[in-house]
Design a protein that fits this description.
Blueprint: E1 2-10, E2 13-22, E3 28-32, H1 39-47, E4 54-58, E5 63-66, H2 78-88, H3 93-106, H4 122-134, E6 140-144, H5 152-169, E7 172-176, H6 180-186, E8 189-194, E9 199-205, H7 213-218, H8 220-237
Parallel strand pairs: 3-7, 3-8, 5-6, 6-7
Antiparallel strand pairs: 1-2, 1-4, 8-9
Helix pairs in contact: 2-3, 2-4, 3-4, 6-8
Length: about 250
């Protein structure tokens, strides 16, 4: 995906301005920054839910979207929610149940296809939402703070699953989060945004993607980079003028 000079306005206010961004195939790119910096607006513009006032957005591949809330159909089972996406993708009815069950198993929900949304925990519901997004076999996955409403343990488990899923499928991911730890844990690259208007002010490359998730959480270099991203986010939210640093 490629963004050049993107500006998004809500009335007289520019939510995002002057954003240039290229995400190569297979990369896991994370957007982070203080509240109101335009992270979600930028992701929604890539998804086509918002229209850029100026600039260009080019997305050359199919996309799937996972929101902050699962947004499941409550009258459908877990299998039914995934089957709905398969139907919209043109999958024949005879194949949908098998394909849906395979996708649910892929996100750790094997055997739970017959459960309704109220019978699932918050983490399980978000797994269904991820399976539904994967049903269309997207080459790009857009994720807007998908774990923000979950408890800490469930969040850690889903972080690990998404990290492994992206690595095995080589899906291109654009991920929005407020958490510096989550950004460094998941991303190949972390982009820090600043508000008024929203723009990218720093870029950090994550060099230790080959480490297993549990090894990574306790590695000294992970702790140092997390602190660096936290510092950049705090600086981005500071209303006083500050020097912006790009980190290779």
């Amino acid at each position: 995906m490629e963004l050049h000079g993107v500006r998004v306005e809500y009335g007289p206010v520019a939510a995002v301005d002057g954003v240039d961004l290229t995400v190569p195939a297979g990369e896991f790119t994370v957007l982070t920054g203080p509240s109101g910096c335009g992270k979600t607006t930028l992701l929604r513009t890539v998804a086509g839910f918002e229209t850029a006032t100026a600039g260009t957005v080019r997305v050359r591949r199919s996309t799937g979207v996972v929101f902050q809330q699962p947004r499941l159909f409550p009258w459908r089972t877990a299998r039914g929610n995934v089957s709905y996406a398969l139907a919209r993708h043109g999958v024949p009815r005879a194949e949908r149940a098998v394909r849906a069950d395979a996708l649910l198993a892929r996100v750790g929900l094997a055997g739970l296809g017959d459960r309704r949304s109220w019978e699932l925990s918050g983490g399980q519901q978000q797994r269904v939402a991820i399976a539904r997004a994967l049903a269309t076999e997207p080459e790009i996955l857009l994720m807007d703070e998908p774990f923000s409403a979950l408890d800490a343990l469930t969040r850690e488990r889903l972080q690990e699953e998404v990290r492994e899923l992206a690595a095995t499928t080589r899906t291109t991911v654009l991920f929005v989060t407020h958490s510096a730890e989550e950004a460094v844990l998941l991303g190949h690259r972390v982009l820090v945004m600043a508000p008024a208007p929203g723009r990218v002010v720093a870029e950090v490359t994550v060099p230790f993607r080959d480490l297993a998730t549990e090894q990574l959480r306790t590695a000294p270099e992970f702790t140092a980079l997390r602190a660096r991203v936290t510092e950049l986010v705090r600086a981005a939210g500071d209303p006083a003028p500050a020097a912006r640093t790009r980190t290779a």
